Amino acid sequence: MKKICVIGLGYIGLPTSAVFARAGFDVVGMDVSQHVVDTLNRGDIHIEEEGLAEVVKEVVANGKLRASTKPEEADVYIISVPTPVHADHTANLDYVVAATNSIVPYVQKGSIVLVESTIPPRTMDDVVAPIITAAGFSLEDVHLAHIPERVIPGRIMIELIENTRIVGGVTPEAAKKAADVYRTIVQGECIETEALTAEMSKLMENTYRDVNIALANELVKVSGKLGVNAQEVISLANRHPRVNIHQPGPGVGGHCIAVDPYFIIEKATEEAQLMKMARDINNSMPSFVCEQVARLTAEINNPTITLFGLTYKGNVDDVRESPSLEIAEMLENTGAYTIRYHDPHVRQEQVAFPLSNFEDSVKDSHLILVLTDHNEFKTMDSEKLQSLMKSTVVFDTKNCVEMNDERVQVVKIGNLSELKAIQA
Prior knowledge:
Blueprint: E1 3-7, H1 13-22, E2 26-30, H2 34-41, H3 52-61, E3 65-68, E4 76-79, H4 94-103, E5 112-115, H5 123-134, E6 143-146, H6 156-162, E7 165-169, H7 172-182, E8 190-194, H8 195-226, H9 230-237, H10 260-265, H11 273-283, H12 285-296, E9 304-308, H13 323-334, E10 338-342, H14 358-362, E11 367-370, H15 375-378, H16 382-388, E12 393-396, E13 409-412
Parallel strand pairs: 1-2, 1-4, 2-3, 4-5, 5-6, 7-8, 9-10, 9-11, 11-12, 12-13
Antiparallel strand pairs: 6-7
Helix pairs in contact: 1-3, 4-5, 8-11, 12-13
């Protein structure tokens, strides 16, 4: 086992390729984007991830990693392509199907085919396996397994190595062979199981978090009505040894928590009632945030609002499923505001909204709306805010801003009892 072909060079596929190449494998990464391929073959990266650039530069330079727009014959194939959702929230498996079909001409008896993409239950058995068997292989000839990724942006290069991996084989032999591949790079445990169980375990990991976040977000709404400090309630409740309420926020984003529950819901719609309700609550938060913005600016004619953060989480450049973008669009559609945008981690080509630097974005602004917990937003120069803004008010939807200057009013989403309209 010497050569690995990775299909898809995005937020998971590229770090996975780099880690295997660093471990000594010959890795070819396949991507449909010529820009991505050219960038990687120069030893550069097209995404932001801590520690990735150094590894890619090293393994490209020593010839262990290269990129191509076509798959190649290899011992192991790793499919790491997106699985977006349709408008009705059902899984769009087009990329998984296309990736599987793309490697069929190169697969041979004894090949190991691994799917890292997050997929609905029974996708390995009902979608991937039939493509392989239709090509004339048996499930003893080609070893199929699902190994869901379990990493968080900002720590991918660490967690790819340290985290325990669930290895779900279509056959027991496939699970063993797939686990052996990952044991060459993983310090954590590689637990062998069935493909269906691996699919469900991945989805439930993120569904658990989604439900817990929904509970915190609903607490914010209830507390706002009752005049209770929800943030203090969470802090005190979490002092109980068996309670761990998550943090509220402007919604749930990223390609995991905001998407994975739907993959279960579509397969068991009548049974997955709590999961569906949690999704509805979290999906309601962008609208809820906009309502609070309207309350804050009710006394001002055509207020200027500065949005801080367009990514779905702090200190990364990932805007997938970001509630910040939904909030931005909602505010723009009202026509009631002048809106500016600032995100030091996002490139202009990633978003449709015009980005500005810190000073330009806050000049003459009535309100800063913090939507992402980037480190740059946790502490701000209060003197600069005083000199540039028309009113120094910050609405912190991520509970991250640390401001000790009483001249700057910070309204936390977890304590809406302090929310008062900004005076013109």
